[in-house]
TrEMBL record:
One of its GO terms (biological process) is antibiotic biosynthetic process. This is 2OG-Fe(II) oxygenase. Keywords: Antibiotic biosynthesis, Iron, Metal-binding, Oxidoreductase. Pathway: Antibiotic biosynthesis. It comes from the Bacteria. It comes from Frankia casuarinae (strain DSM 45818 / CECT 9043 / HFP020203 / CcI3).
């Protein structure tokens, strides 16, 4: 079996006497593709499954009920949302959660006053499931512990003292559930023509992903440009390197480029927790990685990137009605074609 995307036992890799070849595989993957899968990762599977069952129930509600869960202010990364393609065919349905429900909660957790405005666009919790909020935050918390452990492993692989990657509190996270529909259009089209999520890298330090479904729709790009599927390994979580890790290592650790292709009659869901250090953090390469050639990465404050996220996103992907809803601070629900009826 190939080792393009190693699936590793995290406890074994973190052990004092971790096998050298295991550590080598992880380091090699971090430099080559930016993606590993982990088992024995410490995030309770019952918690992941409980969370996914609850979200699934929400996503199977009748559309008028789901429409009530759209962000009241049209924020693209809060609440429920559907993404149709140019023909109105549903490509992706998302439920997104921010780290705090409102600026007061963020302030109480120690977020600097300067960034509190980011939390003016609240989360949207379904009244049908009063426990979803608690389960969501419990899952996010467990994923944060995992993210920090993997970053600790990466420090070790790089010969850095523990704590070299900035990890000031309160760290910053976002959470997304992706629900991909079946794709009932002719099966003969090239994969490029049935992308449900376009290729991208994540702006996190690392992203913790759980994929759940009947086929390996997630693909990662290799250095030569070819795409390989990320196998569905029962119980495993995927750890994506994001662009912050790349910046810290001055380009040594690659951010994984990834995309999602349709699977014919099969469905798939994923949950991503995007982990970052505190919004106050100045992101820049660690001195250990800056040689005589210097660096092309300019220092940047994470909170300043976050403040421009929505505008940047809408500039590229926003449809006119969606942009108008955001400008006017009202909810937005996409029109869908007949072919996507039932969602
Ligand atoms: O669905 C997936 O597996 C990938 C999702 C993803 O890349 C994202 O939400 O950023
Ligand atoms: Fe992603």
């Amino acid at each position: 079996m190939t080792d393009e995307i190693p699936a590793i036992d995290l406890e074994a890799a973190l052990a004092e006497d971790a096998p050298a070849d295991l550590l080598l595989r992880v380091r090699e993957a971090a430099e080559r593709i930016g993606l590993i899968q982990v088992v024995n990762h410490g995030v309770p599977l019952e918690l992941i499954e409980d969370f996914e069952r609850r979200v699934e129930r929400v996503l199977r509600l009748p559309r008028p009920e789901k429409a009530k869960l759209a962000s009241p202010t049209g924020h693209p990364f809060r609440g429920w949302r559907q993404w149709p393609d140019d023909l109105g065919r549903l490509e992706l349905e998302r439920y997104s959660v921010g780290q705090f429900d409102n600026p007061a909660d963020a302030a109480a957790a120690g977020v600097s006053e300067r960034w509190l405005g980011l939390y003016k666009h609240g989360n949207v919790w379904p009244p049908e499931d009063p426990d979803l909020r608690g389960v969501t935050f419990a899952y996010a918390k467990a994923a944060v512990v995992l993210a920090q452990r993997v970053l600790g492993l990466y420090e070790r692989l790089l010969g850095l003292p523990a704590g070299s990657f900035p990890d000031a509190e309160p760290h910053h996270i976002n959470m997304i559930v992706n629900d991909y529909p079946t794709w009932t259009y002719p099966d003969t089209v090239a994969e490029e023509e049935k992308l449900l999520l376009l290729e991208h890298t994540d702006g996190s330090a690392v992203t913790i992903l759980h994929q759940h479904g009947e086929y390996s729709g997630l693909q990662a790009q290799q250095a030569d440009g070819t795409w390989i599927p990320v196998p569905v390994v029962p119980g495993a979580l995927q750890v994506f390197s994001g662009t912050i890790l790349t910046r810290w290592t001055n380009g040594l650790f690659r951010p994984v480029r990834h995309r999602v292709v349709a699977g014919g009659s099969a469905t798939r869901q994923s949950t991503g927790i995007f982990y970052h250090p505190s919004l106050d953090t100045v992101l820049e390469p660690l001195p250990a990685f800056v040689g005589e050639d210097g660096t092309e990465f300019e220092p940047v404050v994470l909170g300043e990137i976050d403040e421009t996220n929505v505008e940047n996103y809408l500039k590229v992907f926003g449809r006119p009605e969606q942009v108008a809803a955001w400008r006017e601070g009202r909810p937005f629900v996409s029109e869908l074609a007949e072919t996507s009826a039932g969602r």
